[in-house]
## 1
Amino acid sequence: MRYAMAIDTKKCVGCADCVVACQTENNVPHGYCRDWIVENVEGTYPSLDMKFQSERCNHCENAPCVRCCPTGASHIAEGGIVLVTHDDCIGCGACVEACPYDARYMHPEGYVDKCTFCIQRVDKGENPACVDVCPTYCLHFGDLDDPNSNVSKALKDRSWYVLAPEAGTEPQLYFLR
Amino acid sequence: MKEELIVSGKHLPDIYPVLHLWHWEISLYLFLGGLAGGILFFAAYFYITGKEKEMPTTVKWATIIAPLALAIGLSSLLYDLHHKLYFWRLFTTVRFTSPMSWGAWTLMIIFPLSLIWIGTYMKEMFPNWNWKFKFLNDFEALAIKYRLSIAWLMMALSIILAVYTGILLSAFNARPLWNTSILGPLFLVSGFSTGLAAIMWLSNDEHERKVLSRIDIFFILTELFLIVHLFMGFMAGTAVKLEAFHLFMGGAFTISFWVFVVLLGLIFPVTLEILELKGFHIPKWVPPLLILFGGLMFRFVMVDAGQITRFLY
């Protein structure tokens, strides 16, 4: 099993519903977020091109945050989901420094927090909150090993890219172009 | 022509400032860790080579600084932790891929070891010293008997301690300034040089200071050589490495690095040390003070600057 997410950059309108849904579902403290929108505008006026990307933890296969964690609080759970065990985390910040995607933040309660692919929902066979709430259906989640999963189908006939492949992290967020 | 007009990054006003997570606590600790590593290395080294009588400050007196420096450094690390009460989690596991885990375990051994080392010399340093309890006297006798083994262990661990302060940073591939394998040797050499400086400051023995000064000159020149290599590596590197390079060449850290670290912290004191060996009179506290200042600045600059550099995507 290999959980992954595909983000359709052609459909994303940057409404940030995914951000709010995540904050609500996961009780993210006020002022913080586990996912975010990146907006790129390219070109020279009047020929401009705008692109939105909904980003979050890449749940890397070769996760630098897990590698550098001194206590093993950061770990890779079943399905490749990168998680932090709050009670094992000493809040040293090594994983925050290690993440090329800056996907982690220090929770006000002292431990490091990040996207969990809403594991509490995924375990019940549901989608992460961000996926379910997306009004343009631009987020596709599922098991890459299952050819009939939403993410496998989305990746099948579209071209895609991942973020900072040169970091060697083998990220599991696929951006459809 | 197609040019990029706007690239708005993450809209995370509350997260971005927080990402700059490591502050003075880390820099101070990296400095004190290297300093303690240097002091303990030379104490063990001169004991093993049988120069105990010749180098009394190095082998005995200066080692008192090491556990003090480590205690201050570790307190500042603990202060930096955001989940302080969970710090013991470091010692419920061994993570081979995490330099921080290596460091925690090294400190767990070298800190008591340095106290034992000082303990074996207490009666020599303070003739009226009395351990009060019999078991402490027995333990002292045992430690003195095995002093050579302790010295070897301390020498090995002090190298790991000083190297790890650099590897701690170089292990982060996400921060291009840190992610260079030369950082380990650089911090080792710099840490040992600050250790030598501290011993030289304490020592009143002309001969001992000359010996230390000669070694220190070698270490500082090596450090300068490694710094040149560090920047040659950046210049020949990819875009992210060049970005790191520009922080030091015209960027925000130009003055603090080249003036305070390289000029005042390395070139100036090494010149003074060479002049002193040639027979000029130099106040004995000047070169050590500059070296210690340069070492501290070096760690402040590296910790601060490294957190600015990141992958471009």
## 2
Amino acid sequence: MEDLTDVYNDLIMEHSMNSYNKKELENADYSQIGHNPNCGDEITLQIKMNGDVIQDMAFSGHGCAISQASTSIMIDTLRGKTIEEAKEIVRIFIEMIKRETTDEKELKKLEDAIAFKNVSNMPARVKCALLAWHTIEEILEKNGK
Amino acid sequence: MDINKIKKDFPILENRKIAYLDSGATTQKPIQVIKAIEEYYQKYNANPHRGAYSLSIEATQAYENTREKIANFINAKNKEEIIFSKNATESLNLLAYSYGMQKLKKGDEVVLSIMEHHSNLVPWQKVCKITESKLNYMYINEEFEIPDEEIENKITDNTKIVAITHVSNVLGTINNIKKIIKQAHKKGAIIIVDASQSIPHMRIDVQDLDCDFLAFSGHKMLAPLGIGVLYGKKELLNKMEPFLMGGDMIEFVYEQETTFAPLPNKFEAGTQNVEGVIGLGAAIDYIENIGYDKIEKKEKELISYARQELSKLDYLTLYLTPKEENHSSVISFNIKGVHPHDVASILDTEGVCVRSGNHCAQPLMRFLGIDSTCRASFYFYNTKEDVDKLVSGLNKAYQIFEKYFK
């Protein structure tokens, strides 16, 4: 088992317990609910677009520290990115968690979200880390040209 | 047999240095059960009820002897009243389809408790929708128990079926099923008891209880996965239509018509889980060998200690009845402000296995106003050291989160 401080570190804990991204967006263009029926975690992601750039995002809902922090850090990472850039980052994150990529150059694009790398060693928590990323993947699939 | 040295019978508890506190989900298996299954495959494996050769007859005998053993174990009048199933879920589905679907009419009522496991809830929901019957719930009070008035008010002349768990898999509350059974019969309803969480811990006597049906899973009482039991009163089972159709449950099959086998085969279609039945037989032998009196005494001490130690942690919310005599081997709790999934992960790194989530009881969670809990569930092989490990793991989890509380 991994050392807990690898996962429950300051960055993840601050984002999970006291996230500034946990709020309501006014005039959001997209809103999508994501949930894990097994554990009951549920988040709502909101996105405000400016052309094909993600101008702002926010989330609400409840879940474990890993799902909440993963959502908040994802928002920080994707804010200001184009849809195409966002799609790539989402792909890399999912591949990292599923241990399908270890390419350092690619992982750099994840910025702070690389903090979840060790979750790939905790099979019981993979779903928690991926909740927000699968949710935005769905939004981007549906709406991104 | 010294119950305090029992851990050595459980290879997994010897091999892994863990405090296994998830026996409510499934128990570990003693070497005696594992060996019985191995012996079956090495010495007398064949398809029961099928062959004229001695091997098949031996397999049939082992299978049928276990049926008799279970009948004695729960004090059923006849061994034909014991039906083998996959698990309690399948036993309850059998009842929903073969009893509920046939008997319920528009306006009839089915009564459950709010603490039912989904397996004793979702099947009734479906049957009630199809038959246009009404599904009513007995709710719990602030002590996590069903008050007597709730039993009297909810089970009425319109009630045709009452299905109730003996022990809650979330709260550990031991329900007053004797009162519920009496009330159901007084109103002319049949009563189904889900004994999944009780039979591992306490003696069940179906004649003394006078329940009409009783369901349980083998794997929560030392037996392998995939074997369950349905007990039913003979006169009721005889009147019911079969559940699954196929081989071995028939008498004569014509191109357009079939007549069915008598009990118990009528409800056992297809090749059965003989290894599971053999394993369940060995599990019952193991339990009888220790004795329920000793199991109850040991667990009472253990639970009492766990209640006492967990109550000292003021950062915990406990979901348990204050009446120790009404509380079995399950304790649900939350660290205030921390998600149970995180707590369970941290406990895991400390070698403590607990379950977190809604425990297949979403309506109960909603009623309690929470999404999920951590659940520690105990069996006689657990020790006070396991409780101590849980407490120190909880302290560690709290410390990790404490400094981020704002």
